[in-house]
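User: I'm curious whether this sequence folds into something compact or stays loose and floppy. Could you predict its structure so I can see for myself?
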Amino acid sequence: MLNDLESDRVERTISTDKMDKFGEAICSFSNDLPDYQKPGYLIIGADDKTGKVMPVKITDALLKNLASIRTEGNVQPQPSMIVEKVELDEGPVVVVEVPPAHFPPVKYKGKICVRIGPRRGFANEDDERRLYEKRASHVQTFDAMPCLGSSLEDLDVRLFRQQYLPMAYPEEILENDKRDVILQLQSLGFYDMKHDCPTYAGILMFGRNLERRLPGAYVQYVRFDGDGRGAEIASDYKFSGNLMTILSQLDTFVSTTIAKKRPVPVSALREENLVDYPSWAIRELLMNAICHRDYESNGPIQFYQYVNRIEILNPGGLYGKANPRNFPLVNDYRNGVLAEAMKVIGFVNRFSRGVQRVQEELKANGNEAADFDLGLETAFLVKVMVAKKTIVSNHETKDETKDETKVGHGAYVIYSLIAKDPSVTRDNIVVTTGLSTSSVNRGIAELKRKKVIERIGGKRYGYWQILKEINNEKM
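Assistant: Here's the prediction. I'll summarize afterward.
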């Protein structure tokens, strides 16, 4: 390097006190604009034209000042660098070795310094764009990172070979693929050869004990007998295990339980089926939650069903280029490997029109449009209200509350007591039923809202009037 010309990777100088010059040189080597992917060298004690070693005073103070460039705050982000005194036959020199930054651009005092052949300069717009593209190419999403401490034994290899591979590749390709299973996994982003362990995507898709590595990687389903979390819990279920297993379970659950069809008379001779929620729409929202959630969080996906709506809450807000102003037109993938794997097995399409189709399906079924709450920052919430469409004999539709003859368990207990004694007071209900005062108040409010009861008169001499009978058989 001393005998050659100065270049993109070498700068020589006999100055020992021009710290701004040194800082800019270190910044430019960090940015590695030509993308050599090799270190750059600042050599102090050599002529910049001839490369001849020149006598300079090398002191501890000089070495400390050079080393302090890394931490003094003028170079951001902090560069990696090595400062050392090297003894040559011609005399000593100071060498500062600077490897390329993993996340360029690096700035010195707010300016992006680059090497343009043997000269230093500042980046123009095209240079800056190239550096930001380099940064993006080096960034690994969480699912592509190695799951350190895991091994091939943590994966269900049979599941990968017998179920996933046939969906990922045509049969004739698989017949000629004689590679080891680790190489097959690695080619699809499920194994990290450098660290000799599965990636988080591999653990999520085929892990034998998923929650051991990712404690929050499950879906929590709860059905409430009311319109809030304070209502009685009618049923609950935990969908746990690797995604090859639970995606199919969720698909079946939504189509058979959430979107259960009910016959509604259209005429004396004909019936048509109605559903509270279209299965494809709920399935799509669930799959989006699984695909886009933040798996570094220990919280599960919450899939909560109330008497009047469904809520799906998953850890992790909008990601990357997506923001509240451009959602849902702009999409980005927090888990790119996982998104591709879910596309392979048929659970997402990656066409960035899932939300649009969800709204179309809901409208066609008589539901309101899904409500996306984008202001939670660390979570993503979507609410879907129950359909209010019923079919009448003239084939037109009218709005009618589906759950008007269904109430929560606590409300039904209160209703039964009022039906026996319309003069019963709230305090009497608390004593007789054993419910708390707040539960009684919520139950009465629910009965009033659904126009089941009405209060006639005041608290002291009034009574409850039954407006309609209710049928609270378990669904």
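Summary: Residues 390-404 have pLDDT under 50 and may be disordered. The radius of gyration is 33 Å.
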